[in-house]
Amino acid sequence: MATLQVVLILVVFVAGVVLMMTKKMPAILALPLMGILIAAIAGVPFISSDPETQSITTYVIGTGAARLATTITVTIFGAIFAKVVQKEGISDAIIRKAAELAGDKPLAIAIALTAAIALIFTAMSGAGPVIMVSQIAIPLMLSAGIAPVVAGSLILFGLNIGLLFNVSQYQLYVDTIGMDMGVITSTSVVMGVVCAVVTLVYIVVNTRKTSAAAWAMPATDAKAEKVNPIALLMPLVPIVLVFLFKWNAETALIVTLVVTALITKPRQAMQVLSSSVVEGIKDIAGVIGLMVGIGILLNGVSATQTSALMQPIISMILPSNPIVYVLVFTILSPLALYRGPLNMYGLGSGLANIFVAAGTLSPAAVGMALRSTSVVQTVADPTNTQNVIVADYASVDVNDILKSTLPYTMVMTLGILIYTAVVLF
After folding, report:
1. Do 195 and 412 form a contact (C-beta atoms < 8 A)?
2. Helix, strand, coil content of the chain in percent (nearest 5)
3. Average of per-residue pLDDT across 261-278
4. DSSP per residue over 300-324, as a string?
5. What is d(CA 339, CA 383) in angstroms, rounded to the nearest whole number?
6. Which has more confidence, 384 or 126?
7. What crossing angle do the helices spanning 285-302 and 69-87 adopt, rounded to 10°?
8. Which residue in 287, 366, 297 sits closest to 325, CA to CA?
9. Cα separations (Å) of 342 from 131, 159, 336?
10. Cβ contact 38:9 at 8 Å
11. How far apart are CA 261 and CA 254, in angstroms?
């Protein structure tokens, strides 16, 4: 009976992957459905009058839906801050200032704009900021003679580096697998360095044969001039507060977004803040729904009956040797694409929980495996909203971006995993 249950659970996993990859069912619906089905197959009762007994209605759905409440809260504050940064023209000014300082050299422009985009995404995330950045930065790169697929890819490489330092992204790993926040912040620096170096290599390789086009940045930009110079540094403030002063992400984001509104347009601060709350939450409504689904999936796979079935199998296949650990997760890193089993915003959230419960790998090792493969997903996944947006603005096929970036993101994964194997395994 146990063997049949395991087979059926694996069938549900595979079916979920296929449905999401083929876009027959969105992840926001597929993930909670999988959590409920897996729990039912494992023998979790649908309802129970005993409060100590895990059931589908109370534990999987009820408790699961609220499992990532802290992550959702941090995400909301991050979205509000992103709106403030956008409304005050800070992100726009950063990009234009970087392009102005780079002059007319393609290599310098590529480096400057990628760095500026990384700075912006330390404070922002979501489709809105990607659209804003793309409509400004891509034309500047194309005017400098940079190939369209390279221009689009650099938006995503910059976004990836920025998100590694975006404190609103960290809580998911704490809530799903119990990863220590201190480990997350310290390893983010290492991940940022690895990704920055590989991105620089990508820039050098792909712009060395580029010749600058005849263009020039305006000497002044009216919108940029209105931005308080201090405000250009505000995206870095939450990082400083969390990394150096050990504030929690919620407090760091709230304080920073209020200060940002006050130092840019103090007379309109109240209006900017109130509209940013509404618009910011609206922007991430889909993400919140996805996190509710992830919570249900997490509780479905972490229920006592499910864990008892899956742990012996997972214990046998998880690498216990650091060299094998590096090789396995590097080779399998493309499984982070298409909401696959190594994608924390897909099936990876459920599998990571099982990995930790199996006891073969520490939460730090599991978390870093998923964080390392996340760079593949963030930059190269054709199903990402940001990839579709960037490809559209660059007028290239989204799969061309995948082909251009995948080898480099796998090298990033390799570098991060080597560090993990040496220091944290």
Report:
1. yes
2. 80, 0, 20
3. 94
4. HHHSHHHHHHHHHHHHHHS--SHHH
5. 8
6. 384
7. 160
8. 366
9. 27, 20, 4
10. yes
11. 11
Q: How many CA atoms lie within 13 A of 362 on its CB side?
A: 13
Structure tokens at 227: 């931005």
Q: To 5 degrees, how large is the angle CA 338–CA 81–CA 120?
A: 65
| SS3 state of residue 143 | helix
Q: Which amino acid is at 100?
A: E
Q: And the tokens for 247?
A: 């504030």
Instruction: Give me the residue label for tokens 């493969």.
Output: 373
Query: What sign does the dihedral 59-75-183-371 (CA atoms) show?
Result: positive
| pLDDT of 171 over the 50 cut | yes
CA distances from 79 to 45, 51, 357 (A): 38, 37, 32
The token duo for 201 is 């290599």
- Greater confidence (177 vs 223) lies with 177
Average pLDDT over residues 191-219: 78
CA distance 424 to 322: 10
Confidence label for 425 from pLDDT (cuts 50, 70 and 90): confident
Host H or E run for residue 172: helix 171-177
Which pairs count as long-range contacts for 264-272, CB under 8 Å and 24+ apart, including other chains?
264/88, 264/89, 264/90, 264/227, 264/228, 264/231, 265/88, 272/84, 272/87, 272/88
- Averaged pLDDT score across all residues of the chain: 90
What pLDDT, on a 0 to 100 scale, did the predictor assign at position 211? 53
- Residue 49's Cβ-count burial label (10 Å; 0-12, 13-18, 19+) is exposed
Q: Spell 212-235 as b/e; 16+ CB within 10 A means b.
A: beeeebeeebeebeebbeebbebb
* 168/406 Cα distance (integer angstroms): 25
| pLDDT at residue 210 in the model | 62
The span from the CA of 179 to the CA of 243, in Å, is: 16
Residue 159 in tokens: 């976004």
